[in-house]
Amino acid sequence: MKLILNILKQPKLLLLQAFAFVFLILNSLISILIPVITSRWIDDYFANETINETLLIISIVYLVFGFTIPFVFTLINSVINERIGLALKDMLMQKILAQDYSFLAKTSISKVFTIITSDVNFVKDIVGRLITSIITALLLLVGSVYLMNQQSPAVAIPIFIIIPAIALIVVVILRSAMKLFKQIQEKRDGINKVIDENIKGSMLVRVFVSEAEEEQKFSHANADLELKSVAVAKIFAWIFPLLNTTMFVGQLIVLMVGGQEIMNGNLSLGELSAFNALVMMFTAPFIIIGFISGLLGQAFASLGRINEVIYSPIIKAGGKTAIAKIDNISFVDVSFFTNKTKILSAINLEINASEKIGIIGITGSGKSTLLQLIIHFFKPTKGKVLINGIDSKEINLNTYRTKIGYVPQDNFLFSGSIFDNINFDRKLSKEQIQLAADTAEVTEFSNKDKRGLMLDVGEKGSKLSGGQKQRVTLARALAESPQILILDDSTSKLDSETESKIWNNLAKNYPDLTLIVVAQKISSIKNCNRIYVMENGKIASSGTHQQLLENSFIYQEIELSQNNYQAA
Predict the structure, then answer these.
(1) Taking 90 as the threshold, does the pLDDT of residue 239 lie above it?
(2) CB atoms within 10 A of CB 537
(3) DSSP 8-state symbol, 321
(4) If you ran DSSP here, which 8-state letter would residue 456 be given?
(5) Which residue, 413, 528, 393, 389, is CA-closest to 461?
(6) Which of 199, 447, 506, 540 is most buried (most C-beta within 10 Å)?
(7) Do the Cβ atoms of 357 and 526 come closer than 8 Å?
(8) Quick one: which of 409, 471, 473 has its CA closest to 442?
(9) Residues with Cβ < 8 Å from 205, sequence gap 6 or more?
(10) pLDDT band at residue 90, thresholds of 50, 70 and 90?
């Protein structure tokens, strides 16, 4: 609850809470006055058989305020709840974006999505209900106890004993449900994960005709959720009969004891009617407490998951040393493990400014991981990555990464125009964007449309071909004129003519660029100053294209297979 309290302390929210508190009290007073006014109407009409004008005016005024006050209170409370939700989502996103990539790589996307949506929405709703319900319950309890005792202690005392006893049973029953809510949230995470995987992998599901298997997987996950949900439902199934019983017992006491009091001349018909309404009012706080007790279980489960993210320690790689220019990157006996699996082993390499470096190897040889160590998405398990001779752990990564252009394998594009995707919220000049677009041969296809660079790419780039998306992501990496450009198999979907044009454009427009290229095709790296051939997480050989053709069996095999493929 510390997190929520910190949010509620914000100046703007404090003011809204003050207004909400005033209107909440007024709203509760209106509820308490209902039995009093009703009692006066009944007794006055039966006694005089005429309408009391003063009482009529009071009733009209009451009706006006009875509408206005609840309306204003509900509106203010809704605003408070939404601001709590907004604050929680902002804090979650800030925390997630503040973490280094290594944290994000280990985090379940479906879980984060569930937390930001359903967990946050539930918590912000329950917070508003909790505060409102507690204050309302207290006011109704005090008001009803006072009025009932004033009218007839004889009727009030049995009610004060029996109804709280039944309500206590309800609270005890609800507490058993609290343990199940966290389990239910975890089951929902599992279902969301299955849905996410099946949407993203829908093509593979169809290609391998595994629809039935995936549907069965979803059914199992859904069945597990159903079991937990039914268990909670069974607990709540006891609640409503008990609450109805509580109401019935209260009203029965009023009729039996109150009827006797009327015959004894100690109670009027109007007072008996008011007493019946007051019993309902007296019961309401216990119902509210019972209801809130049930919701609190789920709320604490959701809040616990939110706290896991917000209060998780920030994993920030890197130090304070700023680098103005990257002259050299060296790997010194670098190894990298993940989940006890060795990905890279004893890597030694050197990259100097303005060099063109190629990296090639079969899938799973560790090429992409090596690039991620250069960018410092991950820290080496053993050995050192040196930047200008300085351990990368000591380098300020924000300044370092601004000097790197990176094009990953997935070619991810955001919704919006080509221009927006190249700019990527960096407020670059039109000249920078145009040069990058020209270099990456983006304008070659965008100029065919009258919108040019303002052409909409669609969700995740759905309106562009694979090769067009690669060109846009390349332009995005180039737009800020990086010192180092890292390409992770980023030209695989380009035809040889377009690829050749791009290499020529890079040499012309960014002559001092340090280029690091991971590629499947030898044609993409054969003109590099130095090529590293990787196998099983190790550098098997290195040299120029010609040297490797003469000395590297693996390189020869790759060359031969690609030549045979092209010939075929």
Answers:
(1) no
(2) 22
(3) B
(4) B
(5) 413
(6) 506
(7) no
(8) 471
(9) 198, 211, 214
(10) confident
Q: Are the CB atoms for 411 and 469 separated by under 8 Å?
A: yes
**Measuring CA to CA, which residue among 114, 171, 168 is closest to residue 296?**
171
- Rounded-to-integer distance, Cα 461 and Cα 201, Å: 17
Query: Per-residue b/e over 430-452, b at no fewer than 16 CB within 10 Å?
Result: eebbbbbbebbbbbebbeeeeeb
Q: Residue 558's closest CA among 369, 392, 419, 359?
A: 359
Q: Does residue 566 surpass a pLDDT of 60?
A: no
Q: Do the beta carbons of residue 237 and residue 244 sit within 8 Å?
A: no
Residue pair 471/442 in contact by the 8 Å Cβ criterion: yes
Residue 348 tokens, joined: 């030694």
Cα 229 off chain centre by: 23
* 321 strand-pairing partners: 395
At what angle are helices 53-98 and 269-310 packed, to 10 degrees?
A: 10
Distances (CA, A) of 440 to 302, 348, 352, 491, 513: 46, 31, 24, 10, 14
Gap between the Cα atoms of 15 and 249, Å rounded = 42
Contacts of 532 (CB under 8 A, 6+ apart): 349, 357, 358, 359, 360, 539, 541, 542
Output the furthest CA–CA distance in the chain (Å, rounded): 118
| Helices marked H in 9-52 | 11-48
Which is nearest to 387 in space by CA: 341, 516, 455, 397? 397
**Whole-number Å distance between alpha carbons of 300 and 537:** 45
Which of 307, 301, 314, 308 is closest to 4 using CA atoms? 307
Q: Is the dihedral of CA 313, 315, 320, 322 positive or negative?
A: negative
User: Tokens at residue 461, please?
Assistant: 């780039």
Report DSSP letters for 335-346, one per residue. Answer: EEEETTEEEEEE
The pLDDT of residue 208 is 52
